[in-house]
């Protein structure tokens, strides 16, 4: 176990925190190997407090050392997920204290091994889940959250891989049991998880994918999604209309009965027996989808459930509808909790429906299911090697550009995953770059250090 | 299509209904081939109105003839299910009008084929689902609800087979995806579905079954259920206690970390990183079960959900807690609807849980999934032929004894399935048989015809 600099660690941290309160160390550059006392330093994105984009800044922090069972990873790339926006706003259940280093996934090279670690060597190319702290030059994380990557997988791909593909895989195959001939509705089909869902669906024969996404993305993603609808459309009607072509699928041998109804059939009285018309039943029951994957929440829960076919599964795995222009969202999580439509189990019984929720981070970090996830990652790497799946990377951003990157997600502008490339130098601001106010507006202007920031950031918060 | 006697059918029915208002035709006997006009007659159980046991009587009704796509079956045995009690009380969603002939499953011999029917011959031994009307000497039902039975399967077994085993199978393998090493909690483990669940679980390696059942049944069913609890016990505590032996199952290689906690580890500060102790996580998450199958409802919904492990599934498939001593339950269904605890989707998201409802009858008769069910029945017959499953028959009752049979279910006295044996003659009442009032008490005494019935029935309603 690395114990160097223990006595000075606290002093170091105080200095770093003071540093974090000032302007970000933009000139740090390189590998950030700036030493304070005995502890090495590194660049890291720091969230100073919950709120708007300007609560994020680049800072210098003490480099972590691996504990028992951990690996130290020299980070090459980090994944930016929607949950990171919610963290920034403090819009999650039981948020941690700030300041903190955000980020839950990254890729890089193993640099040191903690005690007890087996199966890894310095120099291994890996991707990993981290319980916060990913957006930094170095991370340490328990070995059960680390996975070796194929030689031909780039670090950007690797940082785009675990969160989205594991989420998609577990929802489709562990929670919902997707099989041949089924249909799936996925929102934000152009995003990281949406694209992963579409690709995994294509590995199962005859699966129909319905997706909602901003219309401007449709051209780019139309090959992966069978039916695309605009994200603001009445997708409930659209899905019902598109899915009802498969009439009489259940009872083809009796399709001629579709024309019989009780008024036409004299003499068929048999007491009070309910007349059963399988053909009619099949027409009604063919509307809808087998699986609904919802990252929006809000009123989409009720809509999603209404779209389910019998034995269909609705899965809530995000609440992007909670992310608005507000900066202080201390009560948004609670508000959503109370506003979301509650589900009556007896209604599920009457309609033969399934409703689930899925949080990969909770499964990993609170519920100890790392072993299950490792099995899933191995299957996914297999699919990658067979060229059946491949992460879609939207754009690469320097650590210093994290605000612009987040703005892009706020704008729902991305097709695929946004990556923080640790070795990328920030793109200089061009004279004609826009400085218009973003949608992720500030209710309280925080002017500390802003005058210098305005030149860096094309979008003013 | 059989059209004989169309013109006289209405007149016949009026005569039968008058007949049904009188004493039951107890002396009908034999095969009930009593002819009124051109229509043949048969014995059938009739529910005159919703309420107590005395609303049931044996009657004569016109024998049905098969329509297009239907089979006519000479019934040998009928299944008695808990749902039949709820029907009798009118305690279901959107109940049909009375009088009606109850019953949803039976077995027998094919006697006639409607037009368009292929694949069956007169004389075939079959079991079938019927949308009401099963408790009679003859039923007609669409061919997609009829299944041929193995030669060595008795009619009693066959009438005990479809409802319970299909329900158990679909819940375990289609809704919940039971796999090796998982655990299941099933209530009323001694009943028809409970026994079917236990048997199907034994076909998967290393599945632990927790069951609740009246203590007097435990000796008889202990071989099929791993852990048995009394039905009135605090099963939540019992299950948690029994299931937490599998600690550290997820991360055996780090079990030594169980002794480390933040107070013991100086110098491990790494900013605000949440300390993650996989070993501790595994101990907590090992409590509980993967699947909860609930036929009780009421407050068992919340309890069942609390017992789920991450990615576990709770399935509501009945509401036997609704069946009390009341006779008029017009509002019980509505009351249950409002009283049952509603589920918050965000809570499912935070805890990684799945909640479902399952109604086989709705799946068959309202939602057109006969094709799916046929596939399930075929698999089940395969398991029967391999001697891996075998219906447990509790007792055989004559049609005239349907009230006693129902009383036995009210009393939760059965181990396995109750069967109405159409050819059985009623057992004479012995001098020392009890006449004490049953639990299924009458709030309104209905004396019509009771003076003769008292001799027949050992239990007074």
TrEMBL record, chains A, B:
<dbReference type="InterPro" id="IPR002364">
    <property type="entry name" value="Quin_OxRdtase/zeta-crystal_CS"/>
</dbReference>
<comment type="similarity">
    <text>Belongs to the zinc-containing alcohol dehydrogenase family. Quinone oxidoreductase subfamily.</text>
</comment>
<feature type="region of interest" description="Disordered">
    <location>
        <begin position="426"/>
        <end position="461"/>
    </location>
</feature>
<feature type="domain" description="Enoyl reductase (ER)">
    <location>
        <begin position="51"/>
        <end position="420"/>
    </location>
</feature>
<feature type="compositionally biased region" description="Basic and acidic residues">
    <location>
        <begin position="450"/>
        <end position="461"/>
    </location>
</feature>
<dbReference type="InterPro" id="IPR020843">
    <property type="entry name" value="ER"/>
</dbReference>
<dbReference type="InterPro" id="IPR052100">
    <property type="entry name" value="SV-ATPase_mito-regulator"/>
</dbReference>
<dbReference type="Pfam" id="PF13602">
    <property type="entry name" value="ADH_zinc_N_2"/>
</dbReference>
<dbReference type="GO" id="GO:0008270">
    <property type="term" value="F:zinc ion binding"/>
</dbReference>
<dbReference type="InterPro" id="IPR011032">
    <property type="entry name" value="GroES-like_sf"/>
</dbReference>
<dbReference type="InterPro" id="IPR036291">
    <property type="entry name" value="NAD(P)-bd_dom_sf"/>
</dbReference>
<keyword id="KW-0560">Oxidoreductase</keyword>
<dbReference type="InterPro" id="IPR013154">
    <property type="entry name" value="ADH-like_N"/>
</dbReference>
<dbReference type="GO" id="GO:0016491">
    <property type="term" value="F:oxidoreductase activity"/>
</dbReference>
<dbReference type="Pfam" id="PF08240">
    <property type="entry name" value="ADH_N"/>
</dbReference>
<feature type="compositionally biased region" description="Acidic residues">
    <location>
        <begin position="439"/>
        <end position="449"/>
    </location>
</feature>
<protein>
    <submittedName>
        <fullName>Vesicle amine transport 1 like</fullName>
    </submittedName>
</protein>
<feature type="compositionally biased region" description="Basic and acidic residues">
    <location>
        <begin position="1"/>
        <end position="25"/>
    </location>
</feature>
<feature type="region of interest" description="Disordered">
    <location>
        <begin position="1"/>
        <end position="36"/>
    </location>
</feature>
């Amino acid at each position: 176990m690395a114990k160097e600099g223990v006595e000075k660690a606290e002093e170091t941290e105080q200095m770093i925190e003071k540093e974090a309160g000032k302007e970000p160390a933009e000139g740090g550059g390189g590998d950030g190997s700036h030493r304070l006392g005995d502890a090495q330093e590194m660049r890291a994105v720091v969230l100073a407090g919950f709120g708007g984009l300007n609560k994020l800044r680049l800072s210098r922090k003490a480099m972590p050392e691996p504990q028992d069972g951990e690996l130290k990873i020299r980070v090459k790339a980090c994944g930016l997920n929607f949950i990171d926006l919610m963290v920034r706003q403090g819009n999650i259940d039981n948020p941690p204290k700030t300041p903190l280093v955000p980020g839950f996934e990254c890729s890089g090279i193993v640099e040191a091994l903690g005690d007890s670690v087996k199966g890894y060597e310095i120099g291994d190319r890996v991707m990993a889940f981290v319980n916060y702290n990913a957006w930094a030059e170095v991370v340490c994380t328990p070995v059960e959250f680390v996975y070796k990557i194929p030689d031909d997988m780039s670090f950007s791909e690797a940082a785009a891989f675990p969160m989205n593909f594991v989420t998609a895989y577990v929802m489709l195959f562990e929670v919902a049991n997707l099989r041949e001939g089924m249909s799936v509705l996925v929102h934000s089909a152009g995003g990281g998880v949406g694209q992963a869902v579409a690709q995994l669906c294509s590995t199962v024969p005859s699966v129909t994918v319905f997706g909602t996404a901003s219309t401007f993305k449709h051209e780019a993603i139309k090959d992966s999604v069978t039916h695309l609808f605009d994200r603001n459309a009445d997708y409930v009607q659209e899905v019902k209309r598109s899915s009802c072509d498969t009439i009489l699928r259940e009872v083809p041998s009796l399709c001629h009965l579709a024309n019989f109804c009780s008024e036409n059939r004299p003499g068929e009285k048999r007491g009070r027996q309910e007349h059963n018309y399988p053909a009619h039943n099949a027409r009604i029951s063919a509307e809808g989808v087998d699986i609904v994957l919802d990252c929006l929440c809000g009123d989409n829960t009720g809509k999603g459930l209404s779209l389910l076919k019998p034995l269909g599964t609705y899965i809530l795995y995000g609440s992007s509808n909670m992310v608005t222009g507000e900066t202080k969202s201390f009560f948004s999580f609670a508000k959503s909790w109370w506003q979301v439509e509650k589900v009556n189990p007896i209604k599920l019984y009457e309609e033969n429906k399934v409703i689930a929720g899925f949080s990969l981070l909770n499964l990993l970090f609170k519920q100890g299911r790392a072993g299950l996830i490792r099995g899933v990652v191995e299957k996914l790497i297999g699919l990658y090697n067979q060229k059946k799946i491949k992460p879609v990377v939207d754009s690469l951003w320097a650590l210093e550009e994290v605000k612009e990157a987040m703005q892009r997600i706020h704008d729902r502008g991305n097709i695929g995953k946004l990556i923080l490339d640790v070795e990328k130098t920030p793109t200089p601001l061009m004279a004609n770059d826009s400085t218009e106010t973003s949608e992720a507006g500030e209710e309280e202007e925080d002017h500390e250090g802003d005058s210098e920031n305005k030149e860096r950031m094309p979008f003013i918060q």
